[in-house]
């Protein structure tokens, strides 16, 4: 018998009560660690396997890091955490943005900077209007870009999955490099929209049970597939997501959770919309969740063969997208019939096109020429009577395209001006339907002018 390959290991570190156990449960996908507001609830290391960023990983939840004498309980807890770090391939250092940085956070960050293990800085408890802004304080720790999340509510987990995937060691020569990794697709939508029928049509096999009864697919099902170009695809068919008020049975709650988890793990989501019913709140909610998690979306407008007034149906869809999904302006729509196969051949080319945009990086010089044009055309407004001076922009990452703007009081830029920049970026660099992140870095950030 061949030995089981050792899984890469994540360790979750941080002082007591910053939300480590909540993050552990969220990454594992089930409640294992006890979560409570009392500091020090976790005293022993907990271990479980989970799927993060498309990889199977071993996850360690540790006791809170505290400065204490070695012979005390707190000292032994810290020693256990340090031992866990020595086993880990990647460390997640969690801070609580509600409380703000403490001397203990700074001390442990300094210690982590001396270690050889890659560290991802997780700014937890960022739910609420000013959570993302509060996360910026974490730059002071000198551990790079903080990843804002709410472990309790699940916000920001897609970005965290991406950061972990980039930090993990490669799976081996066979998958080294993005070009050789399978494209991760999730098929999402309401029950009975035709998701499983579409999966069967794409793969050319009866992989999934289909029928007129809603809810035949109860869990997320992954299929390894090679598309018509010969490229590898990991295709996930998810259980249908109903309105929250109708998710009453435990099984349906599990199905909804599986749909959301698959969406967070994927790179591109195919949102299947029943053309006879149109784009309703369930589909809009899924599209907004995909955008929030930084995932690109292609709409498969299914049952198109049964639509009588196609022009009116198209107009209704366009109106719904314009009114409720302006943040993903230009989203691709492919009319199909999953049942007959008509139009399905156009779906993967559309997915590949969106995937290329989602991965696209703009050179710094080209980006700043665009940025200067935007400033000249429409200078930033005053904030509380004081001038906001934006200096330059960078693009630190793609997947999704992320633009960081530096300047005096940049973090005070009003929402309508941020939308102006995002829409201008989307139009100038032709990125229809792709989520775009805009980050502001004010000069109050002590890390802004240093090389990280």
UniProtKB/TrEMBL annotation:
Entry GO MF terms: hydrolase activity
Note the SUPFAM superfamilies from the entry.
P-loop containing nucleoside triphosphate hydrolases
The superkingdom of the source organism is Bacteria
**EngA-type G domain boundaries:** 8-172, 183-359
Q: Which UniProt keywords apply?
A: GTP-binding, Hydrolase, Nucleotide-binding, Repeat, Ribosome biogenesis
Positions that bind GTP 1? 14-21, 61-65, 124-127
Q: InterPro entries attached here?
A: G_ENGA, GTP-bd, GTPase_Der, KH_dom-like, KH_dom-like_a/b, P-loop_NTPase, Small_GTP-bd
**Which parts of the sequence bind GTP 2?**
189-196, 237-241, 302-305
- Database matches in PROSITE patterns: G_ENGA (PS51712)
Q: Which HAMAP family match?
A: GTPase_Der
User: So what family is this one in?
Assistant: Belongs to the TRAFAC class TrmE-Era-EngA-EngB-Septin-like GTPase superfamily. EngA (Der) GTPase family.
Q: Subunit comment for this entry?
A: Associates with the 50S ribosomal subunit.
Describe the function of this protein.
Answer: GTPase that plays an essential role in the late steps of ribosome biogenesis.
Task: Identify this protein by name.
Answer: GTPase Der
Record organism = Paeniroseomonas aquatica
As recorded in Swiss-Prot or TrEMBL, the protein's gene is named: der
């Amino acid at each position: 018998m061949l030995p089981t390959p050792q899984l890469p290991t994540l360790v979750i570190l941080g002082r007591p009560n910053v939300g480590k156990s909540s993050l552990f449960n969220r990454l594992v996908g089930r409640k294992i660690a006890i979560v409570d507001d009392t500091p020090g609830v976790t005293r022993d290391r907990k271990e479980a396997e989970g799927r993060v960023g498309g990889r199977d990983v071993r996850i360690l939840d540790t006791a809170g890091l505290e400065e204490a004498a070695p012979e005390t309980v707190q000292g032994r807890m810290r020693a256990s955490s340090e031992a866990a770090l020595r086993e880990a391939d990647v460390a997640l250092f969690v801070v609580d943005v509600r409380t703000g940085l403490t001397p203990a956070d700074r001390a442990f960050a300094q210690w982590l900077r001396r270690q050889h293990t890659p560290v991802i800085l997780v700014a937890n408890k960022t739910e609420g209007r000013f959570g993302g802004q509060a996360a910026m304080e974490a730059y002071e720790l000198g551990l790079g870009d903080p990843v804002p999340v709410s472990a309790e509510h699940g916000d920001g987990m897609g970005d965290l999955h991406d950061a972990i995937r980039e930090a993990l060691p490669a799976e081996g020569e066979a998958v080294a490099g993005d070009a050789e990794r399978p494209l991760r697709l999730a098929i999402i939508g309401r029950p009975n929209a035709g998701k499983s029928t579409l999966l069967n049509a794409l793969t050319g096999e009866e992989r999934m049970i289909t029928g007129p009864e809603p809810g035949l697919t109860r869990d997320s099902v992954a299929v390894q597939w090679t598309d018509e170009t010969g490229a590898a695809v990991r295709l996930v068919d998810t259980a249908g997501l109903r309105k929250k008020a109708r998710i009453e049975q435990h099984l349906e709650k599990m199905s909804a959770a599986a749909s959301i988890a698959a969406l967070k793990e994927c790179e591109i989501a195919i949102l299947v919309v029943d053309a006879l019913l149109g784009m309703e709140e369930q589909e809009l909610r899924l599209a907004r969740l995909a955008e929030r998690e930084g995932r690109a979306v292609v709409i498969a407008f299914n049952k198109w063969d049964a639509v009588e007034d196609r022009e009116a149906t198209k107009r209704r869809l366009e109106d719904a997208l314009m009114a409720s999904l302006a943040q993903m302006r230009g989203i691709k729509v492919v009319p199909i019939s999953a049942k007959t196969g008509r139009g399905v051949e156009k779906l993967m080319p559309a997915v590949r096109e969106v995937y290329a945009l989602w991965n696209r990086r703009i050179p710094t010089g080209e980006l700043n020429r665009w940025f200067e044009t935007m400033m000249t055309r429409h200078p930033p407004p005053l904030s509380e009577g004081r001038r906001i001076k934006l200096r330059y922009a960078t693009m630190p990452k793609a997947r999704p395209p992320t633009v960081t703007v530096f300047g005096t009081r940049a973090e005070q830029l009003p929402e309508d001006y941020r939308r102006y920049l995002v829409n201008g970026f989307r139009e100038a660099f032709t990125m229809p339907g792709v989520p775009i992140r805009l980050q502001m870095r004010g000069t109050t950030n002590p890390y802004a002018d240093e090389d990280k």
